[in-house]
Amino acid sequence: MSDTSTRNGGPVAKTGPATAASLPGARAAAAAGGGPGRPGSPKRRRIRTHLPSTPWLFLLPGFAVIGSFVLFPFFSTVSSSFTDQRPLVAGKYVGGANYQELWHDEKFWIALRNSLLYIVGVVPPLVLLPLLLAMLVHRYLPGISFFRSAFYLPVVASAVVVGVMWNWMLEDRGLINAVLSTIDVGPIGFLSDQWLLLISAMMVTVWKGLAYYMIIYMAALGNVPKELHEAAAMDGAGAVRRFVSVTVPAVRSTMVLVAALSSVNAFKVFTEVYLLAGKDGGPGGEDNTLVMLIKQTGIGLDGRVGYASAISVVVFVLTLGLMLLVLKADKKEKDA
Q1: Could you write out the three-class secondary structure of 65-126?
Q2: Which of 307, 275, 285, 282 is nearest to 294 (CA)?
Q3: What are phi and psi for residue 301, nearest 5 degrees?
Q4: Cα 316 from Cα 159, distance rounded (Å)
Q5: Nearest CA to 298 among 100, 99, 77, 96?
Q6: Taking the mean position of all CA atoms in its chain, how far away is CA 225?
Q7: Exposed/middle/buried for residue 187 (C-beta within 10 Å: 0-12, 13-18, 19+)
Q8: In 10 A of CB 62, how many CB atoms?
């Protein structure tokens, strides 16, 4: 860029030092969007998009686990139920012979009866008692953490430890019969009588599951607005009335969830009955459940894997139907 000055009375043009705008770099910056006196904008990098198959690669490990340990065993069990497969024999196709045999198998009906009775005896206490327990411990009071931990201890306790403990308490010379003997009652055959053994197993299931469902209810109770209880109290409602009119409607969906979970677990019960009744399912096998019958039928060198698979398929269908009934009943109540 040139400027002018006067020398000897006349204008003389002189060339000054080059400015930033005259440099090649500045011209490039100006062309890119910058101008004289400001730096040019940087070049935009092109963002590389992922391949369409990239998300599926992240899901592949999960699909592999589900396929290997859920889907493949399920379809393998269904296919085995139509064969006479044994542990060391592949077996041949027999059609619906295993299901026809189930219809006439007295052991199957006894096991089905016990499983249904287990639902009747276990589900109502596990729906109501954990809710009452959660209402006692959900408030923040001094020392409440100790009681919460104490209530939750049966959930984390080993099933074997629980079984040994209850066997020790319920046997003929156990703790409970020893206490009853002081008032000239007993001994009572908790582990030798058919019905008392089943009831004892139900008690163990309820005792071990109380705190598990209590935690679920505590989460639901935390979402119940306090204003509802305060308004009900101002209207003169007592504790029982507030429980029926406020608490129960607010946690109804959670009660349905607990009912569904406890129903499925009760229908598939194995550990409690096995630990109290033994591998034979109590006296004469009268306390067998469906899952125990599957184990007894399919295990061993002479086990009937095909027949046990047929029982497993029936258990799956009945469990699915049970869950659908619970959900349908809840939907019908909401629509009413």
Answers
A1: HHHHHHHHHHHHHHHHCCECCECCECCCECCCHHHHHHHCCHHHHHHHHHHHHHHHHHHHHH
A2: 307
A3: -65, -25
A4: 24
A5: 77
A6: 26
A7: middle
A8: 9
Check residues 252 and 238 and name the one with the higher pLDDT.
Answer: 252
Nearest CA to 271 out of 141, 118, 138, 44 is that of 118
Q: Which residue is it, tokens 């060391």?
A: 88
| SS3 at position 14 | strand
Measure the CA–CA gap between 114 and 319, rounded to whole angstroms. Answer: 15
The answer to whether 85 and 91 are in contact (CB under 8 A) is yes
Query: Which residue is associated with the tokens 């730096």?
Result: 39
Q: 131-164, pLDDT tens digit by residue?
A: 988 888 877 777 777 777 888 888 888 888 888 8
Residue 271, CA distances (Å) to 138, 160, 230, 276 in order? 30, 9, 44, 9
- For the whole prediction, is pTM greater than 0.85? no
Which SS3 state, helix, strand or coil, does residue 322 take?
helix
Treating both helix axes as pointing N-terminal to C-terminal, what angle do 144-156 and 106-137 enclose, rounded to 10 degrees? 170
User: What tokens were used for 215?
Assistant: 């935690």
Are 263 and 178 within 8 A, CB to CB? no
User: Angle 11-13-18 (CA atoms, 0-180°, nearest 5)?
Assistant: 150
Residue 136 is encoded by which pair of tokens? 């006692």
Q: How confident is the model at residue 31 (pLDDT cuts 50, 70, 90)?
A: very low
For 5, the enclosing helix (H) or strand (E) is strand 2-7
Q: How far apart are CA 283 and CA 17, in angstroms?
A: 112
125 cis-preceded (ω within 30 degrees of 0):
no
DSSP assignment letter at 149: H
Q: How many residues does the chain have?
A: 336
Give the residue ranges of DSSP H helices in 182-251.
194-221, 226-234, 239-242, 248-250
Q: Is 185 exposed, middle or buried (0-12, 13-18, 19+ CB in 10 A)?
A: exposed
